[in-house]
Amino acid sequence: MTGKPERAMHKPAVTRPGIMEPANPATPASIVPGLAWLLLCQSGGEALSRLTRVGLPGPVLGMLLLLVLLQWQLVRSHIGTVADGLLQHLSLLFVPVGVGVMTHTALLSAYGWQLLVALVLSTWIGLAVTAVVLRALLHRAEPTVANGDPS
User: Fewer CB within 10 Å: C terminus or N terminus of the chain?
Assistant: First the structure.
């Protein structure tokens, strides 16, 4: 020690890849395959919905198709790159909603209370249904105890 107070060395914060900053910064060339997979799933879901008339929307079928395709590492790596980029700029996706709300202030002033009641009630109903389903599933998953033996 030289008599001078030593300065503490500040280390940069360690972040996990995909949480705060992507492991590999996305370049336009690395995003294109992932976007192609997403658009392929979207189009495939729309086509399945129209051809089979199954009663499910195309985006839902596309998400199910994506779920199946994510079993392969090649697809998962391409989708992961795009997902990281989209999550970093998620706030931009709310801009159209904000603009829509601002352009329809007359509707909000006329039907604001009804919309608020509908939103609150639908949220509470959704929470209640989720709680009931969870309770039923947990009850079903409990091991049965017969004569003190869990089996």
Answer: N
- Residue 147's pLDDT is what? 54
107-125: pLDDT as tens digits? 889 999 999 999 999 999 9
Torsion, Cα of 21, 22, 27, 32 (10° steps): -130
Spatial separation of the C-alpha atoms in residues 112 and 106, rounded to whole Å: 9
Residues paired with 17 in a beta bridge: 21
Q: Residue 43 falls within a domain, yes or no?
A: yes
Q: Assess whether 73 and 110 both reside in one domain.
A: no
Alpha carbons 151 and 146: distance in angstroms, whole number: 8
Residue 21 φ/ψ, nearest 5 degrees = -145, 145
User: Are 58 and 41 contacting, i.e. CB atoms less than 8 angstroms apart?
Assistant: no
Asked if the structure places residue 125 within a domain, the reply is yes
pLDDT classification of 21: cutoffs 50, 70, 90: low
